[in-house]
Amino acid sequence: MASSPYMGRSTAPAIPAHWRDFVALTKPRVMTLVVFTGLCGLLAAPGHLHPVLAFTAILCIALGAGAAAALNQWYEADIDAKMKRTASRPLPAGRMDRQSALHFGVGLSFFSVLLMGMATNWLAAAVLAVSILFYVFVYTIWLKPRTTQNIVIGGAAGAFPPVIGWAAVTGDITALPVALFMLIFFWTPPHFWALALFVKTDYAAANIPMLPVVAGEVATRRQIWFYTAIMAVAAMAPVLLKLTGLIYGVTALLGTGLFAVFAFQVLRRRETDPSRMQPEKRLFKYSILYLFLLFGAVVADRWLLA
Predict the structure, then answer these.
(1) Are 90 and 24 in contact, with CB atoms under 8 Å apart?
(2) Is 272 a residue whose pLDDT tops 60?
(3) Most buried among 56, 69, 98, 143, by the most CB within 10 A?
(4) What is the per-residue pLDDT across 83-140, written as a single tens digit (0 to 9) for each?
(5) What is the dihedral sign for C-alpha 206, 210, 215, 220?
(6) How many CA atoms lie within 13 A of 156 on its CB side?
(7) Residues 6+ apart with CB under 8 A from 172
(8) What's the predicted TM-score (pTM) here?
């Protein structure tokens, strides 16, 4: 069962929350990848968007991602308090009250969607709205506390930014942004489960049914390998469909090959000591670089080989 946002520890700071705590609610480090993939979708799109409007579109993607993160932390404050990795966040640490976080998240959501619609077009705004709602209601509230497949289905929330960036320029959604969406969608399970393997005690303490907690490490390692294989197909799809050029093709081939090597090392591991899980940590860190490289290659194809 999901924890109610009004159960558990009550936090009532004696002074107003610091502006840094509101920034922390947006998960700025996580937002970096979201903004980058959104920017790449915008830059890879055919057509032209005025630099001021392009900046506004990326700002809206960042604000929307931050709003979703704030609402996630509002809902999961009790859960975050039980995990070492998240206990220092503003809400479980008592530096902010839940009502402030809720108002901040809702207000930022509406502002980002309305600004996107007025600055670019309402298709981009609609996809942004769907991404926020999906992350909050489908992933955070429905899937995460109930099923080991939470990150598989919920991963769609993080796959929307390149679609939003593309739509902001073109006003439509075609094959390439869909292919980029699928790449992130299938990248998310091996990326996140690699992390979950070495922080599974946190999820167990919070009673979150992440795959390593429920199915065990061996099953998780197999699933990482399985989804890496699917991700490899998704990574090569833009080349096979002739949606991208040589730069992306070479980058995807080499980058995915290295990803598969790291995933295979994780598959073969039988170590249960979290302090010794170097292959898992290596895969997690590389998976972030991998996505930066592939999306950068999409833009390079657009601008250097056009």
Answers:
(1) yes
(2) no
(3) 69
(4) 988 899 999 998 999 999 999 999 999 999 999 999 999 999 999 999 999 999 999 9
(5) negative
(6) 16
(7) 123
(8) 0.91
CATH fold for domain 19-173: Tetracycline Repressor; domain 2 (1.10.357)
How far apart are the two ends of the chain, measured CA to CA in Å? Answer: 52
Confidence category of residue 306, pLDDT binned at 50, 70, 90: low
In degrees, rounded to 5, the angle at the alpha carbon of residue 103 between the alpha carbons of residues 97 and 104 is: 90
